[in-house]
Request: fold
Amino acid sequence: MTDTETHKPRSQDRRRFLAQAARSACGAGIAGLGLMFLAKQAQSLPATALRPPGAGAEPDFLAACVRCGLCVNDCPYPTLKLATLGENVPVGTPYFVARDVPCEMCDDIPCVAACPTGALDKQLTNINDARMGLAVVVDEETCLNFLGLRCDVCYRVCPVIGKAITLVREANLRTGKHARFIPTVHSEHCTGCGKCERSCVLEESAIKVLPGALAKGAIGEHYRLGWKEKESRGESLIKGIIDLPDRLPGRIGK
Amino acid sequence: MSAKEFPGRDAVQAKGWLHAHKWLLARRAAQLGFLALFLIGPLTGFWLVKGNISSSLTLDILPLSDPLIHLQSWLAGHVPETTVITGALIVLAAYALIGGRMYCSWVCPVNIITDAAHWLRHRLDIRGGIKFHRSTRYWILAAVLVVSAIGGVVAWELINPVTVVYRAVVFGVGAAWLMMLALFLFDLVIAERGWCSHLCPVGAFYSLPGAFSILRVRVPRRAACNNCMDCFAVCPESHVITPALRSEDGHKPVISEPNCTNCGRCIDVCSLDVFEFGSRFDSREKTQDEPGEPPVLHNAA
Reply:
């Protein structure tokens, strides 16, 4: 730098400084906007990617996970993976795909113990309380049990056997004389480990573990289940219910 | 300010190749060494260090955590556990002592990529391109923190090349090599020293705790400087050298700018041993006549 350059009038210096600062700020602002778009995109996790046990709702998880991979290091099975760049799972976050390698539901939950940030909640001490997702029989048209066979594989491999999946017996109306054993998932017991999806004998699994938010309906808060209310109160909620005439075939108008 | 064709040639002649690349080799060993530490576990089954550079656990005892990542996580609405707060404080304290941007020159693997790009840029004599202001990184750092707070995610981790490289090596590559290639080309063709010295918010963040670090590059023999400009040619943050080397406004013989990365390359390439590592508080200068002074060797014409 020459002397004339360093001894410019102050106002010119200030103007140049302000212009420079404005340019940098705008550039960083644009970069920030781009990052914001990425951040929004990152919230949409593909339905096949399941989070490790103890992970909260996806937005909470993304705020808490620092992508260090300690859970992956401590997973004794090849279950957990860190998303690499280019996958449609937010880069560096841990996940597993049930159909590839399901969660083995270790008693000591090493992945949760390893998590330094609490992204995997340490309150989870019993693996049966994990809710990594929820199994759903997505295709009744191909499920062998629905077709009338006794496949039962999903029921048998379930680590919470007899609770998370039960076989509900019903009449096989096609044959008219057999029974069908319908695999039925109970969300209060299903951990979302993915063993059922992994083991389904079909080419494409008829039972799939979906993220809880996708799999579960939500009944409106204004609904009251009369039979449950009755159970807890010991009597019907509404007294003196009007008994309307029963309309039965052949006895219309009683 | 035209640099010579090969900065450091005088130093190689005066001190020998090894001596003139001492700190560079040490840095590369450190950068690769840190990566190797994380690889020992997956390769041998002996878990000396678990995790990666964002959060790690050494020998199941020592937690270390990246303070910037946890700051973003906290802004995104997550209250961190004590383990990571401890880990982040240890890291912050260490960098406050040795200079925050030593992260960039001694730990960060991206530095190897961008240094290579700069070397090739010089070799191929590529000039021009975009010039970012050095303050841009602080604006980007601010943008990253704002996006974390508003977007509720650890925003920079969506693209952070530092952790992408680390995870690529430790947990599987994926498309990470494309990002490394992009960074290389960016620094090679688009902007000289563009990423690490102008844009990267991680470096910007680490410059803050290191603003008053003890360990500094000193210029005790600045009187001997023969203006060969080799140090300016190799310094990734060349603006940091001037005040100390030129004794501007009675500046102490210490490079005190927070963005000096303590890479020591200036020490390597100086044939007159003007530079050395030392303490920020040491303001002694050495004159030409002092014993131990290396003889002034020929200066390339």
Chain A is about 30% helix and 15% strand. The radius of gyration of chain A is 29 Å. The beta strands of chain A are 49-50, 81-82, 94-97, 134-137, 165-172, 178-185, 207-210.
